[in-house]
Structure formats: C-alpha cells, structure tokens
Amino acid sequence: MRYIYYIIGIILVAGLAVVATGHLLKPETKDDAALTVNGRTISIEEINNRQQYASYPYRSLNDFIDDLLTRELLIQEARRRGIDREESFRRAIQDQYEQSLIKLLLDRMANQLSPRVSDRDIAAYRACSTRRYRLRQELYDNPQAKNPLRPTRTIEDDFNALPLAWQLQLLPLKNGQKTPPFPVGNQYCVLRVERIKDSGTAVELSDDEIRRLLTDGQRQLALDAWMNGLRRTARIEKSPLLKQREGQK
C-alpha cells in the first residue's frame, strides 16, 4: 500500500508519473465518462487535470487525447503483466516522489528570496572582471569554527574563471582583506586576497545579464546557507557499522 501514497504525492506535487497513476484515480460513473478504454472510465475532470499538469503543451486536444489513449493502453498492459507489483517499480515511484517533493520545496524557497543587485554591484563586477587574484582558501565545518578542516590552499586565477560564489564575495575586497565565511556545499569557505593584478581581459556581458547573474548567485548562496542550517540543527546519528564503511572509502 505504501507506494500508492507515493503516486498520489506525485499527482499533488507536479503531475509527474502520469503513466503510473492512471488506474489509481477514483472510478467515475457513466454520467461522468468522457472516454472508456477496456472498461476503464476517464472523466472530463480527469482529462482537464491531466492536461493542466502535462509536462509539455500539446498542439491540439486531439493530440492530447491520442497520447492519453496510448498511455492508458500501455498502463493496462503493464498492469496485466504485473509490473506495477514489482519492487523495482515501487522504488522508482518512491524516487520520483522524493525528487518532486524536493524540487517543489527548493522552488518555493527560491521564490521567497529576492536578492537586490545595485548598479554599484554591477560596476564592481565589471571592474573585478579585469583582474587576476591570488587567494588563500580555508574550509570550515561551520561559520563559527576556528580551525580549518584541512591545510590552507593557494589559488591564482582570473576573476572570470573563479566560481560565481567566490566572485560575489570578492566584489568589495582589496589586497589583504578576507571574506566572511560563506557556504560551499556543506562546508564554509573563507578567502583571503593576497594579490590583485590586471588580467588583460574583461567580461563581455550587458548590465542586465550581469544583474541576472549576480541575482542568481546571491539566491543560490542563500539557499546553500539555509541547507547548511538544516544540517546543523538536525539530529543525525550514524551507526558504528556505517562509520566503519565510510572510513573504508
């Protein structure tokens, strides 16, 4: 029964896995029937719902109905062969459900974030794009940690070749200054500027393109910080056996 709830979740989240859910929708009466395929009734309401959550737009209703009929026939044949009762099918449904749930959560979180990029930020990005940086990188387990996880690493590269998250942190910095800890995956990074010189290159983007780039970068940094916050406040316990297996890798 558990996989049925996964399928229902997919319908509510994003309308994914339509193929898997055809027979799990509530039965319709003959009065509601728009189509009947080998005794399986499909109502106008179901057609409208499927059309609304279709993964891509159809050229016409006829094309959509034709695809729906093909899907229904394939579903019936798969069920006749017992594929829907196989463990691999249930695991695939669970995986799709979890991916859809995560995507919906991250999309909602991203929509709640509205970073602001000023004209000064755009000008700073243009100025930095002509520079080459020599940096010292330190990684920490959390933003309050005093001891880095591994020895300091030195990197020298053009600004335009650095990761966007690094670029955002370097915009206001001068020689000898360092960034506050910022999230990189599930760790925190600190960069110290050791040297700045001209790179002989410049970014070839419009102001609007730079604004979008910086906005997306700031939004991703905020999402990463939020994710790391979930990790820090969660109670995570690993068994000795799992720790042993991790140590063997």
- β content, as a range? 15-25%
Largest sheet: spatial strand order: 4-3-6-5
The backbone outline, from C-alpha atoms, is elongated
Second-tier CATH architecture of one domain: Roll
CATH class of one domain: Alpha Beta
Protein structure class: alpha+beta
Proportion in helices: 40-55%
CATH topology-level name of one domain: Chitinase A, domain 3
Output mean pLDDT: 85
> Helix-strand pattern, N to C?
HHEEHHHHEEHEEHH
The number of distinct helices, counting runs of at least 4 residues, comes to: 9
Distance between the termini: 37 Å
Largest sheet: 4 strands, antiparallel
Protein architecture, described:
By secondary structure, this protein is α+β, with helices and mostly antiparallel strands. Helices cover 49% and strands 16% of the residues. The protein has helices at residues 2-13, 18-21, 44-52, 61-80, 87-112, 119-128, 164-170, 207-233, 240-247; strands spanning 33-37, 40-43, 131-140, 153-158, 182-184, 187-198. The strands form two sheets. The chain has a four-stranded antiparallel β-sheet. It is elongated, with a radius of gyration of 26 Å. InterPro entries: PrsA_foldase, Trigger_fact/SurA_dom_sf. Keywords: Membrane, Transmembrane, Transmembrane helix. The chain crosses the membrane at residues 6-25.
List the helices and strands and how they pair.
Layout: H1 2-13, H2 18-21, E1 33-37, E2 40-43, H3 44-52, H4 61-80, H5 87-112, H6 119-128, E3 131-140, E4 153-158, H7 164-170, E5 182-184, E6 187-198, H8 207-233, H9 240-247
Antiparallel strand pairs: 1-2, 3-4, 3-6, 5-6
Helix pairs in contact: 1-5, 6-8
